[in-house]
C-alpha cells in the first residue's frame, strides 16, 4: 500500500502544481485579454458571472495575491470555472461535462488498444529479432514521425472525400438525438472509426519500439537462458519470463507519456470536429476563450492523473517487488 | 617501533538499519603492512572507505601524523587508495596518461607520468592507451601508480588482487611490498584471503560483523589463531571459495545479534554469556589478542 | 555507423541546407498572391498554389528555417536544463534528488500541449524564439529523468570514488568523469527533444496560436485547413508540408537508433 500512497501523494502535488500554474499564468503574463473580453461583452454579463471571472483571472487588483489564491480555490471547489465566451452564456463546467465523455470514450479506448496492440507486436518483434518483423521498425518509425493531426487530414481526404466511406466530422449524424437506441449507437461508432484508427496508427509505433528494445535486452538475461535450458516451450518463455519482465518499464513509460499522447489525441478531435475536449479547446483558441481553455487544461490534467493511478495499480499487480513493499 | 602514520580511534559507521563498522581502532605505521582480514559483509571495505575519507564516520576520529586534518585535499595528499576492481576504478573514457596526470597536477608533484609508469614496471607507451586495452594486472598497476602520484604516506589497498588471475597476483603483491620498502609506505592490506596476509603483512587484524575480533603480528595470528572465527577461517583456507560460502553471513543477520558476541550464532564453542555480553579483548601473548570469552578465565581480562 | 544512421544524417543535412539557403532559392515570394488560384502541381509551381495563388513550394522552402531554428534552440535549451536537473539529482542523491525527481515527474505528467496553447495564446507576441523558449520549459523533463537514472548508476562506480580519493573536486568529477560517460544518453535526449519541439511548434502553428507572420510547415497546414483545402480536393496544399515533417522526424529517429545501438550493444542487429 505504501507504493500506492506515495504515488497518490505525488499526483496530488502534480494536481496542485497544475492548478497553481493555471492561477498564476494570467496574472504573470502581460496584457489583460479577459478584461478586454469583458469590456466587449459589456452589459451581457450578469454580476455573478462577472465576479467569478474576476476571481479566476485576478482582475481584482485591490486584493493581495494570497487572498486571490484563496478565492480561486474557493471557486474551483464549488465547480465554478467561469463563463465560456464561445458558448456564451454557458458556464465552462457545463461545456466540459458535455464533452468529457466523448473524449474519455474515444481517447481512452484507442489509447488502451494502441498500448495493448503495440506491446504485443513489440513482444513478437523483440523475440523474433532478425526476422521479417525488423522491417516493421522503419515503417513504424515513419508513422510515428507523422503528426497526429496530419494523419487525420490524410484519412479524411482519402476515406471521406475521395472515397466517401466514413463520416469526416462530428460525433454522430446530424439530426439524431443522443439516446440509447441502436441507430444512435451505430452512428457514434461509425463516427469514431476514422479518428480512432488515426490515434491508434500514430501512437502504436512508440509502444512497438519501446517493447521491442526491452524484449531484446531481457532476452539476454540469465533467467531467460535458464528457462531455455529447462526446456520450457518457446511461448511460455516468451510471455511468462521475457515479456513479463519487459512490460514493467513499458507500463511506467505508458503512465508518464499519457500527457503527451492525450495532447496528440486532442488534435485528432480538432481535425475531425469530434465533440470532445480537443474540439472545444480548438474553438476556445479561435475566440480567445481563456476560461474555457483553462478549464480544458484542468480537466485533462485530472483525467491523466487518474489514468496514471490506474496504470500504477496495473504495475502493482504485475510487479511482485512493489507488492511485497506494502 | 616504526613511526605512526595513521591512527583510527573508535570508528563507527551506521547505515540506515545496519551497523557496518562498530568501534574499530587501528594504527598504521610507516614501512609496515597491516592486513585486515574478513569476508564480504564484515565491514572491512567500509573501514577502507572511512580511512580514505570517502565515507563520513558516525563516530570516532582519524589522526594523520598525530593530528586531525580538516582539509580533505591535504589529507588525500598523504592517504591514497587502490580499489578492488581495476576494471571499474579507471574511467573508460580517459587514457592512462589522463589518469596519471590528474593527481600529479592536483597535488603539484614534479614527476612525469612516464616516471610513475616505470615505478610500477609498465612500459611508457601504455600511456596513450585506454583502460579497456590493458589486462587486469596492468590496470591494477596503473591504479597503484595513480595512488603513488600524490607521494602518499599511507596506501589503502582494498582487496587489490582479488579480481586478478591467480597467476599474476604475486607480481602485484611483490610490487606493493617493494614500493612499501622504497617509499616507506604505511600499507593497509584488506583481504578475505588469510593465507596471503601471512605472506604479505607484518600485522594482521581479523574482522567479523563490523568488529575487529583478533589482532597481532601476522605469524602468530595465522599460526596460532585464538578466536574461533579465525580458526574456522584458517581451516577452510585451502579452499577459499568454500570458506566464503560457508561462513558468509548476510549483514542483517549479523547486526541482529548486537547484544553479545557477533559470532555467537555460528561459533562451535559458544557459551551462554556469548549471547548476552560482548567479550572484552584478552591478551594471548606477545601483543596478540582476541575478543573472546574463552580467554577471559584462563589468561585474565586485559580490557 | 550503419546505413540507417547515415540515411538519417543525410536527410538532416539536407533540411539544414534548405534552412540556410531556402530564402534565396525559393522561386517566389511565399506570401505573394498570383492569378494561379488553387492550381495543382505544375512546371511553374512544383507543389501547386494556394487559394490566393501563393506558391506552396516557396512556402515550404522558406518555412524550413523556422522549423529548424525552433528545433535547435529547444534542443540546446532543454538539453541544458535536463543535464542541470538530471545530473544534479543523480549525483547529489538524498532529499535534493527526491525534490528534483518529483519536479521532473510533475512536468512529465502534466499534459504539455494544452498548457502551451494557453501560454502561447496569452502572450501578446508569440514569435519563433519566444515559442521555442516556452517549449523548452516543458521539454526537458524526459531527458532529466533518463540522465538522473544513468548518473545514479555512475555515481557509485569505483572510478568516481577513485577520482574523489585522488583529490578531484566535485565539479570536476561531474564535468570530466561523469558527463563524458553520459554523452550517448545526452545526444539521444537532444535528438528526442528536437523531434518533440518540431512537432509541438508545427502543432501550435496548425491550431493558430503562433504568430502567422513567419512561415513554417505548420502555418502552411493552418492555412490549408482554414481554407477547407480538403473539401476542395487540394491535396497538394497539405501533403508536401506533412511529408517534410514526417521525413525530418524519421531522420531524427533514425539518428537516435544509431545512438541507442552504440550505447546498448544488445540492440545491434544480429548478423545472419
From TrEMBL, chain A:
ABC transmembrane type-1 domain sequence ranges = 100-311
User: How does the protein associate with the membrane?
Assistant: Multi-pass membrane protein
Alphabetical list of Gene3D superfamilies matching this protein: MetI-like
Location relative to the cell: Cell membrane; Membrane
- Keyword Membrane attached: yes
Q: Which InterPro entries match?
A: MetI-like, MetI-like_sf
Would I find Transmembrane helix among this entry's keywords? yes
Which stretches are transmembrane?
A: 9-29, 102-127, 148-168, 188-209, 246-272, 292-318
Q: Which domain of life is it from?
A: Bacteria
Q: What keyword terms does UniProt attach to this protein?
A: Membrane, Transmembrane, Transmembrane helix, Transport
Note the SUPFAM superfamilies from the entry.
MetI-like
Q: Which family does it belong to?
A: Belongs to the binding-protein-dependent transport system permease family.
Q: Write the protein's name.
A: Peptide ABC transporter permease
Taxon lineage: Bacteria, Bacillati, Actinomycetota, Actinomycetes, Pseudonocardiales
UniProtKB/TrEMBL annotation, chain B:
Q: Name one GO molecular function term.
A: ATP binding
Per the UniProt record, one Pfam family is ABC_tran
ABC transporter domain mapped to chain residues: 6-234
Q: PROSITE patterns in the record, alphabetically? A: ABC_TRANSPORTER_1, ABC_TRANSPORTER_2
User: This protein's superkingdom?
Assistant: Bacteria
Keywords of this protein's UniProt record, alphabetized? ATP-binding, Nucleotide-binding, Transport
User: Under what name is this protein listed?
Assistant: Dipeptide/oligopeptide/nickel ABC transporter ATP-binding protein
UniProtKB/TrEMBL annotation, chain C:
InterPro entries in the cross-refs: BP-dependent_transpt_permease, MetI-like, MetI-like_sf, OppC_N
Which residues are in the ABC transmembrane type-1 domain? 68-256
Keywords attached to this Swiss-Prot or TrEMBL record, sorted alphabetically, are:
Cell membrane, Membrane, Transmembrane, Transmembrane helix, Transport
Has the keyword Transmembrane been applied to this entry? Answer: yes
Q: What is its main location?
A: membrane
Topology relative to the lipid bilayer, per the entry, is: Multi-pass membrane protein
Q: Where in the cell is it found?
A: Cell membrane
Which Pfam family is one of those matched by this entry? BPD_transp_1
The source's superkingdom equals: Bacteria
Q: Which family does the record assign?
A: Belongs to the binding-protein-dependent transport system permease family.
The protein's matches in PANTHER family, at most eight in alphabetical order, are given as:
D,D-DIPEPTIDE TRANSPORT SYSTEM PERMEASE PROTEIN DDPC-RELATED, OLIGOPEPTIDE TRANSPORT SYSTEM PERMEASE PROTEIN APPC
Q: What is this protein called?
A: Peptide ABC transporter permease
Organism, per UniProt? Lentzea flava
Amino acid at each position: 500500500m505504501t507504493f500506492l500512497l506515495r504515488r497518490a501523494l505525488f499526483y496530488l502535488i502534480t494536481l496542485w502544481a497544475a492548478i497553481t500554474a493555471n492561477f498564476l499564468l494570467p496574472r504573470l503574463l502581460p496584457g489583460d485579454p479577459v478584461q478586454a473580453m469583458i469590456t466587449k461583452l459589456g452589459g451581457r454579463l450578469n454580476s455573478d458571472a462577472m465576479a467569478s471571472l474576476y476571481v479566476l483571472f485576478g482582475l481584482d487588483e485591490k486584493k493581495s495575491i494570497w487572498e486571490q489564491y484563496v478565492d480561486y480555490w474557493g471557486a474551483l471547489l464549488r465547480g465554478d470555472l467561469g463563463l465560456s465566451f464561445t458558448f456564451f452564456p454557458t458556464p465552462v463546467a457545463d461545456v466540459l461535462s458535455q464533452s468529457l465523455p466523448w473524449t474519455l470514450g474515444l481517447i481512452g479506448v484507442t489509447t488502451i488498444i494502441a498500448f495493448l496492440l503495440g506491446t504485443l507486436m513489440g513482444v513478437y518483434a523483440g523475440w523474433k529479432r532478425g526476422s521479417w518483423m525488423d522491417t516493421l521498425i522503419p515503417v513504424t518509425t515513419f508513422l510515428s514521425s507523422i503528426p497526429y493531426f496530419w494523419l487525420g487530414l490524410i484519412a479524411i481526404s482519402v476515406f471521406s472525400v475521395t472515397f466517401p466511406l466514413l463520416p469526416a466530422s462530428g460525433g454522430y449524424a446530424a439530426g439524431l438525438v443522443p439516446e440509447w437506441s441502436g441507430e444512435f449507437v451505430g452512428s457514434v461508432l461509425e463516427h469514431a472509426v476514422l479518428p480512432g484508427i488515426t490515434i491508434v496508427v500514430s501512437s502504436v509505433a512508440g509502444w512497438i519500439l519501446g517493447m521491442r528494445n526491452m524484449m531484446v535486452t531481457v532476452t539476454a538475461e540469465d533467467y531467460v537462458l535458464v528457462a531455455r535450458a529447462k526446456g520450457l516451450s518457446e511461448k511460455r518463455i516468451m510471455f511468462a519470463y521475457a515479456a513479463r519482465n519487459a512490460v514493467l518499464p513499458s507500463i511506467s513509460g505508458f503512465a508518464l507519456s499519457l500527457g503527451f499522447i492525450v495532447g496528440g489525441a486532442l488534435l485528432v478531435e480538432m481535425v475531425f470536429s469530434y465533440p470532445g475536449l480537443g474540439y472545444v479547446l480548438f474553438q476556445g483558441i479561435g475566440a480567445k476563450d481563456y476560461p474555457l481553455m483553462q478549464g480544458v487544461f484542468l480537466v485533462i490534467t485530472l483525467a491523466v492523473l487518474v489514468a496514471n493511478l490506474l496504470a500504477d495499480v496495473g504495475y502493482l499487480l504485475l510487479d511482485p517487488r512493489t507488492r511485497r513493499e506494502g | 617501533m616504526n613511526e605512526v602514520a595513521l591512527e583510527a580511534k573508535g570508528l563507527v559507521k551506521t547505515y540506515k538499519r545496519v551497523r557496518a563498522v562498530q568501534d574499530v581502532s587501528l594504527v598504521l605505521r610507516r614501512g609496515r603492512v597491516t592486513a585486515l582480514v574478513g569476508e564480504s559483509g564484515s565491514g572491512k571495505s567500509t573501514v577502507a572507505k572511512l580511512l580514505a575519507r570517502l565515507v563520513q564516520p558516525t563516530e570516532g576520529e582519524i589522526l594523520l601524523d598525530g593530528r586531525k586534518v580538516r582539509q580533505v585535499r591535504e589529507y588525500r595528499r598523504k592517504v591514497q587508495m587502490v580499489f578492488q576492481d581495476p576494471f571499474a576504478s579507471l574511467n573508460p573514457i580517459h587514457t592512462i596518461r589522463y589518469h596519471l596526470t590528474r593527481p600529479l597536477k592536483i597535488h603539484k608533484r614534479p614527476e612525469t607520468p612516464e616516471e610513475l609508469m616505470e615505478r610500477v614496471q609498465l612500459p611508457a607507451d601504455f600511456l596513450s592507451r585506454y583502460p579497456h586495452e590493458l589486462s587486469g594486472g596492468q590496470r591494477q598497476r596503473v591504479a597503484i601508480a595513480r595512488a603513488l602520484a600524490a607521494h602518499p604516506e599511507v596506501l589503502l589497498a582494498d582487496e587489490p588482487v582479488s579480481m586478478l588471475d591467480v597467476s599474476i597476483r604475486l607480481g602485484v603483491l611483490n610490487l606493493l611490498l617493494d614500493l612499501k620498502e622504497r617509499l616507506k609506505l604505511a600499507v593497509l592490506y584488506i583481504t578475505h584471503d588469510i593465507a596471503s596476509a601471512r605472506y604479505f603483512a607484518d600485522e594482521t587484524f581479523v574482522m567479523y560483523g563490523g568488529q575487529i575480533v583478533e589482532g597481532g603480528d601476522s605469524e602468530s595470528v595465522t599460526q596460532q589463531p585464538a578466536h574461533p572465527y579465525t580458526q574456522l577461517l584458517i581451516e577452510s583456507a585451502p579452499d577459499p571459495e568454500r570458506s566464503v560460502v560457508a561462513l558468509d553471513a548476510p549483514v542483517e543477520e549479523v547486526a541482529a545479534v548486537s547484544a553479545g558476541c557477533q559470532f555467537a550464532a555460528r561459533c562451535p564453542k559458544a557459551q551462554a554469556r556469548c549471547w548476552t555480553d560482548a567479550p572484552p579483548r584478552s591478551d594471548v601473548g606477545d601483543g596478540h589478542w582476541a575478543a573472546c570469552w574463552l580467554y577471559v578465565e584462563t589468561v585474565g581480562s586485559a580490557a | 555507423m550503419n546505413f540507417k544512421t547515415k540515411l538519417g544524417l543525410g536527410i538532416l543535412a539536407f533540411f539544414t541546407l534548405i534552412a540556410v539557403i531556402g530564402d534565396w532559392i525559393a522561386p517566389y515570394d511565399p506570401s505573394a498572391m498570383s492569378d494561379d488560384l488553387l492550381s495543382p502541381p505544375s512546371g511553374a509551381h512544383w507543389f501547386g498554389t494556394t487559394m490566393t495563388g501563393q506558391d506552396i513550394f516557396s512556402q515550404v522552402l522558406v518555412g524550413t528555417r523556422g522549423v529548424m531554428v525552433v528545433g535547435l534552440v529547444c534542443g540546446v535549451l532543454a538539453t541544458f536544463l535536463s543535464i542541470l536537473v538530471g545530473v544534479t539529482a543523480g549525483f547529489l542523491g538524498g532529499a535534493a534528488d527526491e525534490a528534483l525527481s518529483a519536479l521532473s515527474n510533475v512536468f512529465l505528467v502534466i499534459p504539455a500541449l494544452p498548457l502551451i496553447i494557453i501560454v502561447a495564446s496569452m502572450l501578446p507576441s508569440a514569435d519563433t524564439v519566444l515559442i521555442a523558449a516556452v517549449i523548452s520549459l516543458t521539454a526537458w523533463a524526459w531527458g532529466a529523468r533518463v540522465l538522473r537514472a544513468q548518473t545514479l548508476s555512475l555515481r557509485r562506480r569505483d572510478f568516481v570514488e577513485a577520482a574523489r580519493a585522488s583529490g578531484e573536486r566535485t565539479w570536476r568529477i561531474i564535468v570530466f568523469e561523469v558527463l563524458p560517460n553520459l554523452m550517448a544518453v545526452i545526444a539521444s535526449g537532444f535528438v528526442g527533444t528536437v523531434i518533440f519541439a518540431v512537432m509541438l511548434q508545427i502543432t501550435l502553428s496548425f491550431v493558430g496560436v503562433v504568430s502567422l507572420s513567419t512561415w513554417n510547415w505548420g502555418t502552411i497546414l493552418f492555412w490549408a485547413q482554414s481554407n477547407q483545402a480538403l473539401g476542395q480536393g487540394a491535396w497538394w496544399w497539405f501533403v508536401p508540408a506533412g511529408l517534410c515533417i514526417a521525413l525530418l522526424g524519421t531522420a531524427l529517429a533514425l539518428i537516435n537508433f544509431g545512438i541507442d545501438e552504440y550505447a546498448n550493444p544488445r540492440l545491434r542487429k544480429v548478423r545472419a
